[in-house]
Every structure is written in C-alpha cells, then in structure tokens.
Amino acid sequence: MAAYREKAHVTDQSGPAGVFRSRANGWLAAAVFASILPVQALAQDLPEAPAALPDDATASDEDTGSTAAKSVQLPTFGGFADLAEGYTTNAQGSTLTPSGKDDTFTRGRLGLFLNYKRPRIDLHGAYTLTGAYYGSQHRANHLSNRLNLTSLTTVVPEMLFVSANAFATPTELTRVGAISANGEPVSNYNSRDTYGYTVRPELLLRFDDFATSSLSVSHGGVFFVRPATANSGPVPPISSPQNSLSTSVTEMIKSGSDFERLRWSVTGSYAETTQSVRSQKQAQGAAELSYAVTRFIRVFGIGGYSDYKSSTKLAKNISGPIAIGGVTYTEGENFSVTVEAGTQNNFPTYMGSLHWEVTPLTYILANATDSVGTPQGGILSRLSSMGSTPDGGFTDTGTGGGVGPVNGYSPIGSGGLALDNSIYRLRSIQGSIVHTDDRMRYTLMLYGNERDRLDVAPSPSALPRTSVYGARAAVSRQINANMSAMVGAGYSFSNEFSGHDQIMTADAMLTYRLSESLDVYLSDHYVHRDARHLVGVPSTPLTEDQVLLGIRAKF
Predict the structure, then answer these.
(1) What letter does residue 497 receive in the DSSP assignment?
(2) What is the DSSP letter of 2?
(3) Where residue 100 falls among pLDDT bands split at 50, 70, 90?
(4) CA 163, CA 186: separation in Å to the nearest integer?
C-alpha cells in the first residue's frame, strides 16, 4: 500500500516540485531544523519542533524524527500528572518596570495519550493541559491546550483510505512582542490559542502494471483564539491571522512497474481557501518525465500551468507556466541529492534536497524550497502530512522532523516571522546534522527564510521583504540508568518591521528517575532579545530567565 500513497496536496501551494514529484515523499527533507527557533511558539512558516527540550520531558523526547529512532511496543493508553514550582525574572514577557517583572508561579500539567492500532485503523493521539498560577501577577495566569491526533482508516484494502489529523497549540504572532522563555502564552496581544483539523479521503486504483491513479479530496480548517492572559507588551503592527477553511481536489496518474528507466506522471489539482476578509483559488496541471541515465543518476523535467486568483489585489501576477528541470543522484537508501531549477509563479525558482546517512548513527538532511501561499495554507499543508513515530512522538512525514508527546508536534512551522493574514512568496533553506551513540545525542541545525509580501499595491521598488536566519545546537546525555541531562543554545536574527532584531536562548534540564512511574526534574530556560529601528513596536531589550523544579508521575 505504501508504494501508492504518495501525497499531492495543493493547499501548501508549494509549486509542482512539492505537489507533482511523488518520489520526494520520505527524503525531500528539512528534518529537525524547526527546533532552532529561539522560542517554541515563534513558529510561523515552515515545519517545526520546539525550540528546546520540554522542561518536563526526557532527552529522548526532543526529536523523534531521527532515522535511528528505535521501535518500541507502545502502550494503548496512559498519561502523566506534573506539578512544578517556578521563578521567572519577567512574568509577562515584556519590558516592564524593574519592580513588576519577577514572580513565582505554580505550574500543573495533565497529559493523556492513546495508541490504537488494528488492521484497518491506525490512531495515535496525545493531549496536554497546562495551567500556571502566579504569586502576584495574576493577570499572567493561564490555561493552554496542546493536542496531536493522527489517524488512517483503511475502508477498502489497497483502494480506499481516509486520513484525519488535528492539533492544538499556543502560538506567538511575532518575535518582537511579548514572548516567553518556555513558549507558554503570556500576552493576548501577541499570543493565540490555535486549533486545526484536516480530513482526506483517497481512492487508489491500479491499472495492471502500467499505471496507478490517486484521487483525493482534502478539507481542513485552522482557527485562532485570544488566550485568557494579560494585555502585556505592545500590540503587533500586523493584520492578525484570520480563521481559514480550505478544500482541494487532486488527481495524479503515474507510471507503474512496467516503466523502469523512463517514468512519467500527470497531476491536476484545484483548491479554494477562504478567510473572513479574503479568499484564494488555485488550479494547477503539470506533467513530469524522468529518465535514469545510470543506476545512480536520474534526470527529470516538469511542465505545466498554474492559475492563482485572489480576492485581494496582488503586487505581481503569479499565474503562469511551470517549467522545472533537475537531476537526482542516489546511492542506495543512504545517500540522495536533488538539484532543480526553472520557473513557477512567474518567479525564477531554485530548489534542492540532501539526505545522507553518513553512518547508522549520523545523518545530514538539508532542503531548499520556493513556494507561494498564506500562513494558514502552510499550517494546513503541514498538518495534513502529520504522522506518528515508532516511539510515540509525532512527525511531519514530508520532512522527518518531529517531537515527543509532551509539547507535541506543531504544524505552525518555524522561522519566527510574523504570523499574519497576508499572501507571500517564501524561500527557505535549512539543514541539520544529528549524531547519536549509546548515551549521547548531538544536534546542530541551521536555517534561513526570506519572505516577499504579495498582497500590496504594485510599485517600481522591490516587493517588501522580510527574512530570518538562525542556528541551534543541543547535546543530551543519559548519565546513568536513572539520570539524564540536556543543554542547548540558539541564536537567530531577523529583518522585519523596517528594523532588525536578534534573539539568543539557552536551555538546560536535569531529570532523575525515582521509580518506574515517578521523575523529578530541574530546568532553566533563558531568552534575551535586542531590537533596533523597529516601526510600530518599541525597540527595547527583553530578558527572561525561568527556573522550574518539578515532579512528574506517569500512569
């Protein structure tokens, strides 16, 4: 069945390289680069994971997207209860007066998980409810929800499938408003409780060994709600993201096993996306032809047309021909690299990917993409590709990046650029190097995103551009059978709101297992931000250091 389940989902509006080239599924990967973000909730544009290891998770929870992840027999149902006492130097995540910054707080968490796997139903879910009560600054009290739910139902074996995914997570709208060192919501100006779902039935047909057909219909929605927290920090100078619904239909016919050196595929898709203040429609059709020059080298070409319509006037016409060519070099399952170039959305386009398992314990992943769409469309696209991992975490099946069940996988994406209600051209490049051994895990991640806003009045000057670049390194160690530790640090800088900012983070955690069902932990989360020449937002520094001492019972 897996051989016929390559996905073509138009809501990501990522152009034909992502939509039409089915072989990219599985290794066209950016991997765990998302955990580079300075603050967990600063996830805006690309697939993501938390900025650092959750303060109540073990080292193995940080990234379950590793190709070296071990398969374990997952329990069907369980959970945990967590209670921690904390101290923060900046309770509301903003530049308050010195006498009003620090506070103590009590944090409680309740988590539940479900793994239900039967011949025709594969369902995995994890939910975490977090509550924080502050000693003096009660305006910062809050409740937050985190949910991951992914399921695949086989209605007719090898023919009809229905996948359904859902998520919930707190989200920060900008890097320059009120932010928190551990990603919890601290301001209803700059935070949103975000929820979403996708449902996707797919009909697969095989025409002997000549061709296979995939017809899918996808529907999804993403919703943004103000959290019940303080009105702290500045109001972001953006049009806040609006609730969005999206429906798409995609048909792909591709060559079967009769074709070896010469392969082909034809794809057509139509999508409609609506927000409360605007709507978009996109129709695409493309064909791909590839040829294996040798057993290692395959060249390919993609040609077609994309028609994009928006109820809002765009600065540039992005309807036009699709013409992309490239080459893939592959050595077994351990190494593959693709380089491609051409035109789509009336922009010159350069993309590529690298997957290299240097050893069974070391791998390198990199990816460069070029896409057009809305932040809401990107969220729904990433949500539609959410899956579970063998050790109980969640992952983006298109990138391999994922996290454990405590803070969950967030399809909001990474990049740190403002989450608003605009239409953008997004170019991104990211890469990661991960090495593991018996007790240690080393991770180094780099990324860069550039975004051109399209829903502005035409002008002779270049389209308004924002960008963010960053890096993160983390090391975790299983010290002995009962104790584990993790340290991490990150740095990123962006150009946005006519100015620039930089954010530095540091995280550390020590966990000790008292028994099979009881852990104690000590964690520290630090964030520092500098900003210069911002328009609409105060260019003032922000620092928070947050210490937690807690106990966690599993059941």
Answers:
(1) T
(2) G
(3) low
(4) 34
Question: CA 492, CA 144: separation in Å to the nearest integer?
Answer: 26
Confidence check: pLDDT of 234 > 80? yes
Nearest CA to 105 out of 184, 192, 194 is that of: 184
User: Whole-angstrom Cα distance, residue 193 to residue 179?
Assistant: 14
* pLDDT for position 270: 97
pLDDT at 406 over 80: no
Task: List the domains of the chain with CATH numbers.
Answer: 2-205+222-242+348-554 (2.40.160)
Query: 279-292 and 262-275: which strand pairing?
Result: antiparallel
What pLDDT band is residue 59 in, cutting at 50, 70 and 90?
A: very low
Q: Who's near 460: CB < 8 A, 6+ residues apart?
A: none
In 56-190, DSSP assigns E strands to 77-88, 103-117, 121-134, 142-156, 160-172
Q: Which stretches does DSSP call E strand in 89-141? A: 103-117, 121-134
Percent of the chain, pLDDT > 90?
Answer: 65
Report how far residue 352's alpha carbon sits from residue 29's, in angstroms, rounded to the nearest whole number.
10
Residue appearing with tokens 């080298």: 297
* 3-state SS class at 536: coil
CB contact set of 88 (below 8 Å; sequence gap of 6+) = 102, 103, 104, 105, 181, 544, 545, 546, 547
